[in-house]
Amino acid sequence: MPDSSKQEAAAAGRAQRDAWVEACAKSDRAAFAALFAFYAPRVKGYLKRLATDDATAEELAQEVMLTVWRKAKQFDPRQASASTWIFRIARNRRIDMARRAARPGLDADEPLLQPVDTQAPDNAAHARDREERVREALKRLPPDQVHLLKLAFFEGLTHSEIAEKEGVALGTVKSRIRLAFDKLRDRLDPDDI
Amino acid sequence: MTLISLDDELMAARASGALSAPMRLLMDTQAELKTDVAEAAFAGDVLGGAALESLAAEPMADNALVIALAAIDAIESGAGEAAGSRVISRADAARMAQASLSELMNLPNPVRESALESGAQWRFAAPGVRRIELMREGDAVAELLRIEPGHGSPTHTHRGREFTLVLTGAFADGIGRYEKGDLCSVGEETTHRPIAEPGEICFALAVTDGSLKFTGALGAVQRLFGG
Q1: Which of A45-49, A59-63, B28-32, B142-146 bottoms out in mean pLDDT, i.e. has the lowest?
Q2: CA dist B79 → A52, A164, B75 (Å)
Q3: Domain for residue A120, yes or no?
Q4: Do B87 and A99 lie within an 8 Å CB cutoff?
Q5: How many CB atoms lie within 10 A of CB B179?
Q6: Other residues' Cβ atoms within 10 Å of the Cβ of residue A30
Q7: A16 with A97, same domain?
Q8: Where are chain B's structural domains?
Q9: Average pLDDT along chain B, 227 residues, taken 10 residues at a time
Q10: Are residues A142 and A91 in the same domain?
């Protein structure tokens, strides 16, 4: 498949998954089943790196997917894609576990406890466009730089651990990650939009 | 105390979920106060989302969807509500909101949520200083400090490096002056006593993480004076 049609297919896939989350907000269970088939095994794969065993990862993936259903109304495809949104939910499992150990508290979602000033940031309308920009920049990076970024930003390795794993000097790891990450970040520069 | 900027390594650790909950609270809060931190955090999340998409699927149990749909049935029939009743009622929430919570309402979202969820009970820390422990995970602790003008956070010891992020107002510690959005850091061995400036009440988020391993290239920037 030529690159351009591959990219179109990927974008269509993302739009489809966004639509499924929006359908979940309207209690569409068929859409949930489709989301579940795509994301549950991936979320499980991600959580397996943090959790100890298969059974725990399976259970946590179930909880994440249930959160996706409960919070589907809060999903805004203009802000981020379904993948970015679900990735955040999966990652926040760790925060939730820390919170659970804390004292009983107030419900932070309680409408009476919301801040007075709830206006969205000025750039909210362009947020999704920003995600596409980061993804484009990511596609243009050489595979070895993408690999390093994944080790740091997804696998959660320290720079020293990456240096050891890859057999590269620590300074080289730092400068390569800096270079690659700057390319993604630069695409968010307001002057550039 | 030194003014610091968060580096790529911590940013990556935040995105991946490898940071302790208190450290991530610190970074998510600074992202609400500083545009460049917010942009880096956003780029990190997009990276994570893209990596999640391309991750090899880890097969779920054969009946996983059936289990999920049964859990949804339970939520929708209201059975899930009773289990979550640890949370304080709406009426209580309203009463507390009128009493002492209003100050918390305009703090950055991650801190506001965390303060509410931990019960929002202020405790005496020193004259003019009150604190709420927001979260604790292993060696990592996050506290919200409320410092009245002219008062200082108590002299204290902590395990590992301590990070302090100014949320409102400003404070000075004899070496530097720190205002909203500034993050400063002090080593385990250092004794310091920041004093809130006259004017606004100074709210600050203080985080220590005794097990933090992502400090390799933490950029310390000494604030310059008179030049």
Answers
A1: A45-49
A2: 30, 50, 6
A3: no
A4: no
A5: 13
A6: 10
A7: yes
A8: 1-227
A9: 71 88 91 90 94 91 93 78 50 57 85 86 88 89 93 70 90 85 79 83 91 55 32
A10: no
Q: What is the CATH number of the domain that holds A46?
A: 1.10.1740.10
Q: Which CATH number does the domain housing residue A156 bear?
A: 1.10.10.10
Q: A90-118 pLDDT, tens per residue? A: 988 755 654 554 445 666 666 656 665 44
Q: Residue B118's closest CA among A96, A101, A105?
A: A105
How far is the C-alpha of B124 from the C-alpha of B144, rounded, in Å? Answer: 12
Cα(A69)–Cα(A63) distance, integer angstroms: 10
Query: What CATH topology corresponds to B1-227?
Result: Jelly Rolls (2.60.120)
- The pTM assigned to this predicted structure is 0.81
Flag whether A177 is in a domain.
yes
Specify whether A79 is located in the same domain as A20: yes
Chain A to chain B, count of Cβ pairs less than 8 Å apart?
A: 236
Residue whose entry in the numeric block shows the structure tokens 């460049």: B36
pLDDT number for residue A93: 75
DSSP string computed for A23-56: HHTTT-HHHHHHHHHHHHHHHHHHHHHHSSSHHH
Nearest CB among B39, B76, B90 relative to A112 is that of B90
Q: And the tokens for B118?
A: 């931990």
Q: B179: which strand partners?
A: B170
Q: Which of A16-20, A66-70, B101-105, B167-171 has the lowest mean pLDDT?
A: B101-105
d(CA A180, CA A169): 17
Question: Within a domain: residue A67?
Answer: yes
Q: Which residues 130-159 on chain A approach chain B with CB closer than 8 angstroms?
A: 130-131, 134-135, 138, 149-150, 152-159
Phi and psi angles of residue B186, each rounded to the nearest 5 degrees, phi first: -140, 140
Domain enclosing residue A79, as ranges: 12-102
Cα dihedral sign for B196, B198, B201, B203?
negative
Q: Does B82 or A8 have the greater pLDDT score?
A: A8
Instruction: Report the residue from A87, A91, A184 with minimal CB separation from B43.
Output: A184
- The two tokens of residue A52 are 């100890």
Look up tokens 């739009």; give the residue.
A15
What is the CA B75 to chain-centroid distance, rounded?
A: 30
User: Residue B165 is encoded by which pair of tokens?
Assistant: 């992020």
In the predicted model, what is the mean pLDDT of chain A?
83
d(CA B201, CA B91): 28
Q: Is A76 found in the same domain as A21?
A: yes
